[in-house]
Amino acid sequence: MKIQSSVLVHLGFGKYVRSDQVTAVVPIEEERGPGRRTFVHLDGQVDPIIASRAEDTIVRDLVQEPREVIQSRQQQEILRDLLSTLGGVNGTVRRISRDEGGLDLDRLERRIHEVLED
After folding, report:
1. pTM of the predicted model, to two decimals?
2. Running DSSP on this structure, what letter comes out for residue 8?
3. Which residues of 35-62 are buried (b: 16+ CB within 10 A; e: fewer)?
């Protein structure tokens, strides 16, 4: 289990906190109800924030990588695979694909290099 640094976690009703500032997530036992589900304690604050989301969903969001990070990693992996495959395409096939099909594999290869370098 790993807390993601500098990721915002939704607490409900427009409240967000940085995940690396959360020190404790405690379910509200008394007077629990709509808008009052969980106490979220933050580093450097005496009083907890009252969250309207359940403690298990907040904890799940604290320890999971955001979907965007996972998708970005997968997209980079696909680009690396494509770049590797493009490296094996010979000059004749590159010329035919460019001249006859309008697909410039050299330009595509350069663009993938640029994207992966950023």
Report:
1. 0.57
2. E
3. eebbbbeeeeeeebebbbbbbebbeebb
